[in-house]
Amino acid sequence: MSKTASRIVSEARNLVAFSGAGLSAESGVPTFRDATTGGLWKRHDPTKLASPQGFARDPQLVVEWYAHRRRAIAQAVPNPAHRALAARDDILNITQNVDDLLERAGAQALVRLHGTLAADRCDSGCGYRESIDLADPPSLRSCPRCGDHLRPDVVWFGETLPANVWEAAESACRRCDVLLIIGTSAAVHPAAGLIGLAKASGAQLIVINTQPSEASELADIELLGNASALVPEVLD
Ligand code: NAD
Ligand code: ZN
Questions:
Q1: Is the peptide bond before 138 cis (omega within 30 degrees of 0)?
Q2: Is 99 buried (19+), middle (13-18) or exposed (0-12) by CB count in 10 A?
Q3: What is d(CA 82, CA 7) in angstroms, rounded to the nearest whole number?
Q4: 103 lines ligand 1 (CB under 6 A)
C-alpha cells in the first residue's frame, strides 16, 4: 500500500499536505484528545478552554492552559514527518496545528488555518499583535493599545477562519491532484471540508493516521500507522 502511495506522490504535479495534531503527537505535543489525560488539566475540556465563551468566563485559566501548552511545544522538536514534509519544496502545507514544528523543520510554503501559538493578539480586534517566546509564555495581560485582554493568535472553536487564509486553502485544494492527509480526525469544521473539496475537484486522497477517521470514507489509499514512519516512506 505505501508503495502505491509513494508512486502516486512521485507522479503528482500539484501536491498538498493537510495535517492535524497527529503530525506533532510523536514530538510530544498532545492531541486534544490526549491533552487533558494527565496532571493539572485533567478536569478541563480543551474544546471549552479554546473558545470565546471559555475566555470570557475565565481568561486567567485559559491563558494558564496556553502557557502550559506553549512550554510543551518549546520543548518539542520536529519529528521525521515534519522534516520529510519540509524537505519537499514542491509541497504546500496546510495545517490545523498551532505549534511551530513545521516552520522549525524548515517548511516554507505554509497555510496556517488555525493561527499560531507563537503570537498574541488583542481580543477586541484593535489590530495589536506581538510575537511571544514559547519557552517563557506571558500571563494574562492587557493590550497596550486599547486595554482589552491579549489572547493567543489562534482560531478558537466557534470562531471564523481568517478569510484570506481560508481562500488560500480552498484554492490549493481545488487545484491539487494529490492531497496527503496526515494525523487529523477530520472532525473539526470548516477545516475538514477541504478534504471533500479536493476529492470533488478530482484529487487523489492519501490518508495517514494511526486509526480510521472521518477521512477514511473518502480515501483512495489509507495507511494506518505512525506519521513519523509513514510520511517519510511515502515522500521518499
Ligand atoms: P485531533 O486531535 O482531532 O485528531 C488527531 C488525529 O491524529 C486523530 O485522528 C489520531 O488518530 C491521529 N494521530 C494521533 N497520533 C498519531 C500519529 N502518531 N500518527 C498519525 N496520526 C496520529 O486533531 P485535529 O484533527 O488537528 O483537530 C483538532 C483541533 O485541535 C485543530 O483545530 C487543531 O488546531 C487543534 N490542536 C492542535 C495541536 C497542535 O498544534 N499540535 C494539538 C492539539 C490540538
Ligand atoms: Zn487592543
A1: no
A2: buried
A3: 20
A4: no
108 C-beta neighbours (distance < 10 Å), count: 11
Q: Check: CB of residue 183 under 8 Å from CB of residue 22.
A: yes
CA 144 – ligand 1 centroid, Å: 34
Q: Is residue 18 located within the same domain as residue 48?
A: no
Residues with CB under 5 A from ligand 2 (ion): 122, 124, 126, 128, 143, 145-146, 148
State which residues form the domain around 39.
30-75+117-154
* Ligand 1, atom nearest to 35 Cα: 43
Active-site residue (options: 68, 114, 149, 189): 114
- Which pLDDT score is estimated for 41? 73
The grid cell for 166 is 481560508
Residue listed under C-alpha cell 517566546: 133
- Work out the average pLDDT over 43-52: 90
pLDDT in tens, 155-188: 999 999 999 999 999 999 999 999 999 999 999 9
Structural domains counted in the chain: 2
Bond preceding residue 190 cis, omega within 30 of 0: yes
